[in-house]
Write a structure and sequence with these properties.
The chain is an alpha+beta fold and about 170 residues long. The chain has five helices and nine strands.
Length: about 170
Amino acid sequence: MEVYLEEVSTGKKVKGLIETITKSEISSPETKIDWQFDWQTLMEIEGVFFYKLTLASSPSEIEGLLMLTLINEEMLFMNNIEIAPHNYGKDGQYAHAAGTLIAYACKKSFSMGQGYYLGFLAFESKSNLVDLYQKKYGASLAAGQKMFFSPQAGKKLMKEYLKINEEY
């Protein structure tokens, strides 16, 4: 899927892509980054979906990674999301990487979710990120650190980060 990030130093929109990623890609020397998660080990898990966010102009440089699972063939769960260290904070190289990946996960919840879970995206937050997910992205707190994006919150993120105005 074609998306856009913002180059922080110039404010220019830069074309990006979200695509599935393979284990060989995450293991390649070009993608070696000091990730917080051990993505190579995570990719050993069966039945999980992995996606990468890259720039269209440099598809071997990963800007962010996303791991999704379909629970009981009906509810989409965001296991892990991580942006590349060079995109951290207000001084990062590209803005909106996390929001774009979350919006993409919300989009997938409309195609993969079933029944009452259609359009819902569940996840468990790190405790220090609960407020960020609620205030910046519109997530709801379920219990403890368990959170979710409702279909309405997901549509809002899809409109903002993916420029999708379609009805689901």
